[in-house]
Amino acid sequence: MGEYKNQAYNYAYLSIDKIADEGWKQEFNMSIDFISRIIGLIIFGSLGVWLGVYLSDIVGGLVELWASVLGLMGVLVGLVLSPYIIVRPTKAFRAKLRQISARTLFFGIIGLILGLLISVLISFPLAALSEPLNRWLPLISAVFLGYFGIYIFVSRQNDVFSFWKSLSGATDQDGARSGSNKSVRQILLDTSVIIDGRIADIARTGFLSGELLIPGFVLNELQYIADSSDNLRRQRGRRGLEVLAQMQKDPLIPVNISDIDVEGSRQVDDKLVILAKQLRVPVLTNDFNLNRVAELQGVTILNINELANAVKAVYLPGEVLPVRVIQEGRESGQGVGYLDDGTMVVVQGGNNSIGIEMNTVVTKVLQTAAGRMIFARIENSK
Question: For residue 102, is pLDDT > 80?
């Protein structure tokens, strides 16, 4: 009971923090909206007054009337349109920036700086040209070379990064000799693979090289499942949270729970695929549907079920296997047993030997979508 109470308290604290965070975001957005309206009111009101004075000079007389009417119209336009002119584009720009990985953003900035530096060098001979070329060509070259620098460095960031690593290869080798792990590879974890639980044992063996990245929306889905009214779903969610807590406490498993999010999508699987494409990292899962959808979109998938099938021992026809028959098979005269790794063995003539361990001879091995199935007969039987 004490453990469930602690989990309930943790869920309550997470919910309170989430509500407080959402409230803070709404308050911040409201303040930005209000400030933008005030700024728009001042700017458009001033433009209206200036336009009224200008028109009164053209028409003649009634300066106060023109300035007052157009100034009031400018104030109204500023109040109504300012959020759409200032806030909405800013939000869209921020959302786009959140979708760009840190490495892509870094190389984009480097490309922009180098492009602008080259444009500065070119602007000196261009400034010696005649009018109006000396005025417009430096500006055009700055825009073109800045964009060209961003495009080159972003599109070839993997090559640039590999080249940089090759230049610092000696340093990396020294770090490897000293036992330091400088791998920056990340692996995205799906909700299903955390609930499955085998990820902790696999990561502990060291076969997964890199950092296990759990986005905030995956953690939120785990919490939602753990709070479900359905008893089975609630147990699965709590199991996933316990597995995650165990991995965090294990110093051999690098785990990173990030608040990174994907805008424009609500489904967790869609967010995982989009995030994997943005970060250029694989997704670790055992969800068949996510596996197929991600592969169609060019995302690398690490499937635990495929790994489990791959590491099962290979048996050839004629080999002898000790098997305990535990039940009858579908066909007449068949008995069914299981190996230690869960592989099903169908024993011909084993229906009369239920509960008995015997030596069997492999006759055929069948690979199915559910796994490997072995057909055998009792040793010394024809």
Answer: no
